[in-house]
Amino acid sequence: MKTSLLFLLFAIFRTALNAADTGLYELSEAFRPKNRLPDRIDRATLVSRSNDNTLYFLRLYRSSKFSASHEKIGVVAGGKVIRIADRGIESGEYFVSAMVDDPETVKRVMQAFDPNVQPRRHPGYRMLATYKPEKAVFHLGDPVKVTMRIANVGDIDFAFIAGGRQRGARDNQFAFSAEQVGGKMLPDAGDPSHVGGMGCMVMLRPGEPHEGDVDLTKWFSFAEPGTYAVRGSYYMAFVDPAESDFITIWEDFASAEFNVIIRADGGD
């Protein structure tokens, strides 16, 4: 009996959601739509946050404050309630924001708010990534420095953001895995915590390289002499070099494999 009652209540609630027009609603404490807000939306943006365009960031703008606090606002679309994540002011306009992760809901949001949609597309770049150890052989206990090099081997300019994860013990725009040849994988013994950092746009024209140095001992202890197989990755958030908003248009990694040799007695 209880199961049947719960099913009935759920069906009623679902029907109510489906019957509600797509729009901005005041939510109850139970996260259900109460009243449709009279707030007029002046404009909206819908920016993709994934390369496959399945996750979008929605932002709704108006010239005056919203009639309810953002904690009590939700977007109802396609029988789903999308809770507002944050709010703010941008160039004199008030806004609320939310993440939309369902393709059908994205369609309904587009129909309701007519947003400026910015899907992701591959920018058409071609690049070559390499990681070169500073020395052919390192001494046990010394820094193990490596230079990453990204070269534009295509025929168009491309741009990406360098920085944003380096304010900490290491630059977490880099990621590494390592294993001793014939042995085990090395654990990440470093400190991955960071508090962001300044970022800047790097633009590479055809034939131009970008380099960055990194010390692998901020990831691994290299406690034993031997040869280590290492895979390096560098996170790249591509942006449109013709725009100033630095919105990510594509994400990729500059990855390559290389070897590091450690000896107990040193020697170059």
Identify the notable features of this structure and list them briefly:
single chain; 268 residues; mainly beta; Elongation Factor Tu (Ef-tu), domain 3; Immunoglobulin-like; 6-stranded mixed beta sheet; 2 helices; 18 strands
Structural description of this entry:
With 268 residues, the chain is mainly beta. The chain has two domains: 2-118, Elongation Factor Tu (Ef-tu), domain 3 (Beta Barrel); 127-263, Immunoglobulin-like (Sandwich), CATH 2.60.40. 11% of the residues lie in helices and 44% in strands. It has two helices and 18 strands. The strands form four sheets. Strands 11, 13, 14, 15, 17 and 18 form a six-stranded mixed sheet that branches. A hairpin with a 2-residue loop joins strand 7 and strand 8 (93-100). It is elongated. Residues 5-19 have low confidence and may be disordered.
Low-pLDDT segments: 5-19
Task: Write the CATH architecture name of the largest domain.
Answer: Sandwich
Q: What does the radius of gyration come to?
A: 25 Å
CATH superfamily of the largest domain: Intracellular proteinase inhibitor BsuPI
Number of DSSP E strands: 18
Shape label: elongated
* Helix/strand structural class: mainly beta
**What is the name of the CATH topology of the largest domain?**
Immunoglobulin-like
User: What is the count of DSSP helices, taking H or I runs of 4+ residues?
Assistant: 2
List the helices and strands and how they pair.
Blueprint (H helix, E strand, L loop, with lengths): L1 H18 L3 E5 L5 E4 L6 E6 L7 E7 L10 E5 L2 E4 L2 E5 L2 E8 L2 H11 L2 E3 L8 E7 L4 E2 L5 E8 L5 E6 L10 E7 L18 E6 L4 E7 L10 E14 L10 E14 L5
Parallel strand pairs: 3-9, 11-18
Antiparallel strand pairs: 1-2, 1-5, 3-4, 4-8, 5-6, 7-8, 10-12, 12-16, 13-15, 13-17, 14-17, 17-18
